[in-house]
UniProtKB/TrEMBL annotation:
Pfam families cross-referenced by the UniProt entry: Rhodanese
Keyword tRNA processing among UniProt keywords: no
Superkingdom of this protein's organism: Bacteria
Record protein name field: Sulfurtransferase
Residue ranges annotated for the Rhodanese domain, each copy included: 18-106
GO MF: transferase activity
Keyword terms of this UniProt record: Transferase
Keyword field contains Transferase: yes
């Protein structure tokens, strides 16, 4: 059984505020991303995660998120199956982030294209 960790919005914000090093990956669709992203996120729609898995395995902690946490949990499970141990799912996704009082940023047009 391959496992992954979960992180809530308050803890993720604390990681930002205290300088904890991690990569943040948004696995939503470009249309969803265009409505706002968590600042600093890399945009990688879920279907591209298997194709770009090697990029994600080097360099420590990775936090995946989506709209509600379901698709990002799939990304986490996949990466755990690839042997990645320091992988986290943002519990509640963007909805949980916004509900916690945190803001979304506007992604650049170039990052949505790809």
């Amino acid at each position: 059984m391959y496992g992954f960790h979960e992180v809530d919005a308050a803890t993720l914000k604390q990681w930002f505020d205290t300088g904890v090093k991690f990569r943040l990956v948004d696995v939503r669709t470009p249309a969803e991303m265009s409505r706002g992203v968590i600042d600093g996120a890399e945009l990688m729609p879920l279907h591209l995660v298997p194709l770009r898995a090697a990029e994600l395995t080097s360099g420590g902690r990775v936090v995946f998120y989506c709209q509600s946490g379901a698709r990002s949990a799939q990304a986490c499970a996949f990466m755990a199956q690839q042997g990645m141990e320091d992988v986290y799912n943002l519990r509640g996704g963007v909805m949980g982030w916004v509900a916690s009082g945190s803001r979304l940023a506007t992604p650049s047009r170039e990052s949505l294209i790809g």
